Known about the structure:
Blueprint: E1 2-6, H1 16-25, E2 30-33, H2 63-72, E3 78-85, H3 91-104, E4 109-114, H4 119-124, H5 132-148, E5 152-155, E6 160-164, E7 178-181, H6 185-194, E8 197-199, H7 208-221, E9 232-234, H8 240-249, E10 253-257, H9 263-278
Parallel strand pairs: 1-2, 1-10, 2-3, 3-4, 4-7, 7-8, 9-10
Antiparallel strand pairs: 5-6
Amino acid sequence: MKFGVLMFATDYALRPDELAVAAEERGFESLFFPEHTHIPASRRSPWPGGADLPKEYWHTHDLFVALAAAAAVTKTIKIGSGICLVVERDPIVMAKEVATVDFLSNGRMIFGIGGGWNVEEMENHGTAFKTRWKLLRERVLAMKEIWTKDEAEFHGEFVDFDPIWSFPKPARKPHPPILMGGDTPRARQRVVDFCDGWMPIGMRSAGIIAGMKDLAERARAAGKQPSDFPVTVFGAPGDPDTLKQYAEAGVERAIFWVPPEPRDKVLGILDKYTRLTNS
Length: 279
Protein backbone atom coordinates (compact mmCIF):
# COMPACT_ATOMS: atom_id res chain seq x y z
CA MET A 1 0.00 0.00 0.00
CA LYS A 2 1.23 3.47 -0.89
CA PHE A 3 1.19 6.40 1.52
CA GLY A 4 0.58 10.07 0.93
CA VAL A 5 -0.28 13.23 2.83
CA LEU A 6 -2.87 15.96 2.46
CA MET A 7 -3.07 19.48 3.78
CA PHE A 8 -5.22 22.52 3.23
CA ALA A 9 -2.70 24.80 1.53
CA THR A 10 -3.43 28.10 3.27
CA ASP A 11 -1.89 31.53 3.55
CA TYR A 12 -0.80 30.87 7.14
CA ALA A 13 0.58 27.32 6.87
CA LEU A 14 3.78 25.80 5.53
CA ARG A 15 3.97 26.72 1.84
CA PRO A 16 2.76 24.05 -0.61
CA ASP A 17 6.11 23.93 -2.41
CA GLU A 18 7.99 23.46 0.86
CA LEU A 19 5.54 20.78 1.97
CA ALA A 20 6.00 18.95 -1.34
CA VAL A 21 9.79 18.89 -0.95
CA ALA A 22 9.53 17.67 2.65
CA ALA A 23 7.04 14.93 1.72
CA GLU A 24 9.14 13.75 -1.21
CA GLU A 25 12.31 13.68 0.90
CA ARG A 26 10.52 11.43 3.40
CA GLY A 27 9.43 8.99 0.73
CA PHE A 28 5.71 9.73 0.54
CA GLU A 29 4.16 8.66 -2.75
CA SER A 30 1.69 11.51 -3.11
CA LEU A 31 0.54 14.91 -1.87
CA PHE A 32 -3.06 16.13 -2.06
CA PHE A 33 -4.62 19.57 -1.62
CA PRO A 34 -8.34 20.23 -0.98
CA GLU A 35 -10.07 23.32 -2.34
CA HIS A 36 -12.84 25.81 -1.80
CA THR A 37 -13.03 28.88 -4.00
CA HIS A 38 -14.57 30.75 -1.08
CA ILE A 39 -16.95 30.23 1.83
CA PRO A 40 -20.16 32.30 1.89
CA ALA A 41 -20.43 34.28 5.11
CA SER A 42 -24.08 33.24 5.51
CA ARG A 43 -22.99 29.77 6.71
CA ARG A 44 -26.40 28.27 5.92
CA SER A 45 -24.99 24.91 4.91
CA PRO A 46 -23.86 22.77 7.85
CA TRP A 47 -20.34 21.38 7.63
CA PRO A 48 -20.43 17.55 7.49
CA GLY A 49 -17.44 17.38 9.82
CA GLY A 50 -19.06 19.03 12.83
CA ALA A 51 -20.57 22.19 14.25
CA ASP A 52 -17.81 24.72 13.56
CA LEU A 53 -16.21 25.08 10.15
CA PRO A 54 -12.40 25.35 10.48
CA LYS A 55 -10.94 28.56 9.11
CA GLU A 56 -8.73 26.75 6.57
CA TYR A 57 -11.82 26.28 4.42
CA TRP A 58 -11.79 29.95 3.43
CA HIS A 59 -8.01 30.51 3.51
CA THR A 60 -6.93 28.09 0.77
CA HIS A 61 -4.69 28.99 -2.12
CA ASP A 62 -6.03 28.36 -5.60
CA LEU A 63 -5.90 24.60 -6.10
CA PHE A 64 -4.07 24.45 -9.43
CA VAL A 65 -1.59 27.18 -8.55
CA ALA A 66 -0.71 25.24 -5.38
CA LEU A 67 -0.37 22.00 -7.35
CA ALA A 68 1.89 23.68 -9.90
CA ALA A 69 4.06 25.12 -7.13
CA ALA A 70 4.42 21.65 -5.59
CA ALA A 71 5.22 20.05 -8.93
CA ALA A 72 7.84 22.63 -9.86
CA VAL A 73 10.17 21.78 -6.96
CA THR A 74 9.78 17.97 -6.96
CA LYS A 75 10.57 15.10 -9.30
CA THR A 76 8.76 11.93 -8.23
CA ILE A 77 5.93 12.64 -5.80
CA LYS A 78 2.45 12.53 -7.29
CA ILE A 79 0.30 15.62 -6.80
CA GLY A 80 -3.44 15.43 -6.45
CA SER A 81 -6.62 17.37 -5.98
CA GLY A 82 -8.53 16.19 -2.97
CA ILE A 83 -11.06 17.14 -4.01
CA CYS A 84 -11.54 19.46 -6.95
CA LEU A 85 -15.02 20.99 -6.90
CA VAL A 86 -15.84 20.29 -10.51
CA VAL A 87 -19.30 21.82 -10.16
CA GLU A 88 -17.74 25.22 -9.42
CA ARG A 89 -15.36 25.38 -12.39
CA ASP A 90 -15.68 25.95 -16.11
CA PRO A 91 -14.94 22.60 -17.82
CA ILE A 92 -12.89 24.01 -20.71
CA VAL A 93 -10.67 26.03 -18.37
CA MET A 94 -10.49 23.13 -15.90
CA ALA A 95 -9.46 20.70 -18.63
CA LYS A 96 -6.57 22.99 -19.52
CA GLU A 97 -5.56 23.40 -15.86
CA VAL A 98 -5.45 19.66 -15.24
CA ALA A 99 -3.64 18.98 -18.52
CA THR A 100 -1.10 21.73 -17.91
CA VAL A 101 -0.23 20.54 -14.40
CA ASP A 102 0.05 16.96 -15.64
CA PHE A 103 2.16 17.99 -18.64
CA LEU A 104 4.54 20.17 -16.63
CA SER A 105 4.89 17.54 -13.89
CA ASN A 106 5.64 14.78 -16.43
CA GLY A 107 2.45 12.85 -15.70
CA ARG A 108 2.25 13.13 -11.90
CA MET A 109 -1.27 14.58 -11.57
CA ILE A 110 -4.09 12.69 -9.80
CA PHE A 111 -7.50 14.25 -10.34
CA GLY A 112 -9.67 13.72 -7.27
CA ILE A 113 -13.18 15.10 -7.73
CA GLY A 114 -16.44 15.55 -5.87
CA GLY A 115 -19.76 17.35 -5.85
CA GLY A 116 -19.31 19.34 -2.65
CA TRP A 117 -21.67 20.05 0.24
CA ASN A 118 -21.96 23.85 0.48
CA VAL A 119 -25.21 24.84 -1.24
CA GLU A 120 -24.69 28.60 -1.22
CA GLU A 121 -21.07 28.25 -2.38
CA MET A 122 -22.32 26.42 -5.48
CA GLU A 123 -25.07 28.95 -6.00
CA ASN A 124 -22.46 31.71 -6.18
CA HIS A 125 -21.05 29.84 -9.19
CA GLY A 126 -24.44 29.41 -10.81
CA THR A 127 -24.77 25.74 -9.87
CA ALA A 128 -28.02 24.27 -8.57
CA PHE A 129 -27.52 21.80 -5.72
CA LYS A 130 -30.18 19.37 -6.98
CA THR A 131 -28.58 18.94 -10.40
CA ARG A 132 -24.92 19.11 -9.35
CA TRP A 133 -24.23 15.43 -10.05
CA LYS A 134 -25.61 15.58 -13.57
CA LEU A 135 -23.51 18.68 -14.12
CA LEU A 136 -20.40 17.00 -12.71
CA ARG A 137 -20.85 13.97 -14.95
CA GLU A 138 -21.14 16.07 -18.09
CA ARG A 139 -18.15 18.21 -17.19
CA VAL A 140 -16.00 15.14 -16.60
CA LEU A 141 -17.08 13.56 -19.88
CA ALA A 142 -16.46 16.84 -21.70
CA MET A 143 -12.97 17.12 -20.21
CA LYS A 144 -12.17 13.59 -21.33
CA GLU A 145 -13.03 14.63 -24.88
CA ILE A 146 -10.75 17.66 -24.63
CA TRP A 147 -7.88 15.62 -23.16
CA THR A 148 -8.02 12.82 -25.72
CA LYS A 149 -8.99 14.50 -29.00
CA ASP A 150 -7.23 17.11 -31.08
CA GLU A 151 -10.58 18.53 -32.11
CA ALA A 152 -13.05 18.00 -29.28
CA GLU A 153 -16.74 18.74 -29.07
CA PHE A 154 -19.47 17.99 -26.56
CA HIS A 155 -23.22 18.43 -26.60
CA GLY A 156 -25.13 17.82 -23.39
CA GLU A 157 -27.76 19.35 -21.18
CA PHE A 158 -25.30 21.41 -19.12
CA VAL A 159 -22.14 21.46 -21.28
CA ASP A 160 -22.33 22.32 -24.95
CA PHE A 161 -19.57 23.33 -27.34
CA ASP A 162 -18.73 22.80 -31.00
CA PRO A 163 -15.27 21.51 -32.06
CA ILE A 164 -12.42 23.23 -30.23
CA TRP A 165 -8.62 23.09 -30.11
CA SER A 166 -7.11 22.93 -26.64
CA PHE A 167 -3.53 22.07 -25.75
CA PRO A 168 -1.45 20.85 -24.00
CA LYS A 169 -2.76 17.34 -23.69
CA PRO A 170 -1.96 15.48 -20.46
CA ALA A 171 1.35 13.63 -20.30
CA ARG A 172 -0.47 10.65 -18.74
CA LYS A 173 -2.46 8.72 -21.33
CA PRO A 174 -5.32 8.81 -21.86
CA HIS A 175 -5.52 11.32 -18.99
CA PRO A 176 -4.70 11.59 -15.26
CA PRO A 177 -6.63 9.09 -13.13
CA ILE A 178 -9.98 10.45 -11.96
CA LEU A 179 -10.83 9.49 -8.38
CA MET A 180 -14.39 10.02 -7.14
CA GLY A 181 -14.91 11.13 -3.56
CA GLY A 182 -17.95 10.29 -1.45
CA ASP A 183 -19.06 7.22 0.46
CA THR A 184 -22.49 6.27 -0.84
CA PRO A 185 -23.74 3.59 -3.23
CA ARG A 186 -24.38 6.31 -5.81
CA ALA A 187 -20.83 7.60 -5.47
CA ARG A 188 -19.47 4.11 -6.09
CA GLN A 189 -21.70 3.75 -9.13
CA ARG A 190 -20.26 6.98 -10.49
CA VAL A 191 -16.81 5.49 -10.02
CA VAL A 192 -17.75 2.58 -12.25
CA ASP A 193 -19.61 4.73 -14.77
CA PHE A 194 -17.04 7.44 -15.55
CA CYS A 195 -14.10 7.45 -13.14
CA ASP A 196 -10.89 5.48 -12.51
CA GLY A 197 -10.93 4.99 -8.75
CA TRP A 198 -12.71 5.60 -5.47
CA MET A 199 -11.53 8.04 -2.76
CA PRO A 200 -13.68 7.88 0.41
CA ILE A 201 -12.83 9.91 3.51
CA GLY A 202 -11.36 7.56 6.07
CA MET A 203 -12.02 9.72 9.12
CA ARG A 204 -15.76 9.82 8.36
CA SER A 205 -16.35 6.33 7.03
CA ALA A 206 -16.78 3.22 9.12
CA GLY A 207 -17.56 1.07 6.12
CA ILE A 208 -14.71 1.43 3.64
CA ILE A 209 -14.06 -2.30 3.39
CA ALA A 210 -17.78 -3.00 2.96
CA GLY A 211 -17.86 -0.21 0.39
CA MET A 212 -15.02 -1.88 -1.49
CA LYS A 213 -17.08 -5.07 -1.75
CA ASP A 214 -20.00 -3.05 -3.08
CA LEU A 215 -17.71 -1.33 -5.59
CA ALA A 216 -16.41 -4.71 -6.77
CA GLU A 217 -19.95 -5.99 -7.31
CA ARG A 218 -20.85 -2.89 -9.29
CA ALA A 219 -17.74 -3.26 -11.42
CA ARG A 220 -18.55 -6.86 -12.27
CA ALA A 221 -22.17 -5.96 -13.05
CA ALA A 222 -20.85 -3.44 -15.59
CA GLY A 223 -18.60 -6.05 -17.19
CA LYS A 224 -15.46 -4.57 -15.64
CA GLN A 225 -12.86 -5.79 -13.17
CA PRO A 226 -12.68 -4.56 -9.55
CA SER A 227 -8.97 -3.97 -10.13
CA ASP A 228 -9.94 -1.31 -12.67
CA PHE A 229 -11.00 0.90 -9.74
CA PRO A 230 -8.28 1.18 -7.08
CA VAL A 231 -9.16 2.70 -3.73
CA THR A 232 -7.49 5.67 -2.05
CA VAL A 233 -8.47 6.30 1.58
CA PHE A 234 -8.45 10.07 2.07
CA GLY A 235 -7.68 11.14 5.62
CA ALA A 236 -6.66 7.67 6.75
CA PRO A 237 -6.28 7.14 10.50
CA GLY A 238 -2.73 6.82 11.78
CA ASP A 239 -3.54 3.49 13.39
CA PRO A 240 -1.37 0.47 12.46
CA ASP A 241 -4.19 -2.06 12.86
CA THR A 242 -6.56 -0.10 10.63
CA LEU A 243 -3.85 0.42 8.03
CA LYS A 244 -3.15 -3.32 8.07
CA GLN A 245 -6.84 -4.00 7.46
CA TYR A 246 -6.83 -1.56 4.55
CA ALA A 247 -3.77 -3.23 3.04
CA GLU A 248 -5.23 -6.71 3.41
CA ALA A 249 -8.47 -5.51 1.77
CA GLY A 250 -6.54 -4.22 -1.23
CA VAL A 251 -6.54 -0.47 -0.63
CA GLU A 252 -4.01 1.05 -3.03
CA ARG A 253 -3.21 4.26 -1.16
CA ALA A 254 -3.69 5.74 2.31
CA ILE A 255 -3.49 9.53 2.68
CA PHE A 256 -2.72 11.07 6.07
CA TRP A 257 -4.16 14.45 7.05
CA VAL A 258 -1.68 17.10 8.15
CA PRO A 259 -3.10 20.26 9.78
CA PRO A 260 -2.30 23.61 8.13
CA GLU A 261 0.34 24.79 10.58
CA PRO A 262 3.78 26.45 10.48
CA ARG A 263 6.83 24.57 9.24
CA ASP A 264 8.17 23.03 12.46
CA LYS A 265 4.84 21.55 13.52
CA VAL A 266 4.08 20.15 10.06
CA LEU A 267 7.52 18.58 9.71
CA GLY A 268 7.11 16.93 13.10
CA ILE A 269 3.83 15.37 12.01
CA LEU A 270 5.37 14.20 8.73
CA ASP A 271 8.16 12.54 10.69
CA LYS A 272 5.57 10.77 12.85
CA TYR A 273 3.81 9.36 9.80
CA THR A 274 7.15 8.41 8.27
CA ARG A 275 7.98 6.31 11.32
CA LEU A 276 4.52 4.74 11.18
CA THR A 277 4.81 3.72 7.53
CA ASN A 278 8.35 2.39 7.97
CA SER A 279 7.56 0.30 11.05
